[in-house]
Amino acid sequence: MEISQLETREAHEAGTKCNLVQADGSVSDAFVIVQGPDSAAFRLAKRNQRKMIIELKAKNEEMEVFDFFPLDVEFAIDLITDWGNITKDGEPLKFSKKACKGLLENSPVNVDRILDHCGDRVNFTKG
To answer: 0.85 exceeded by the pTM?
Structure first.
């Protein structure tokens, strides 16, 4: 078997399109480009999230009732490199981490969608 058939990092670094869900539950033409689990960005985001959890435990946070959603938002933002078909007041909204955070903080369904997309390696491979 050719070694190139075993390598996954390049495809995961390039990322893939993940269509977002509208408020009514239907899939929209709006999308984000996300990097996969074999990317450096994913591994770094995972380390950062673990570090934050360790810090919370050190502060004796009540983990059973702690709201982890903000950590998931940060994780998703760290994996998103671009977006498309997203507008504000009828005009295309340029991608930025700040704009992305504003969207995701108000769209838990899309945070879950992005993390589910990233967690499935088949979304980043051809075949």
So the answer is: yes
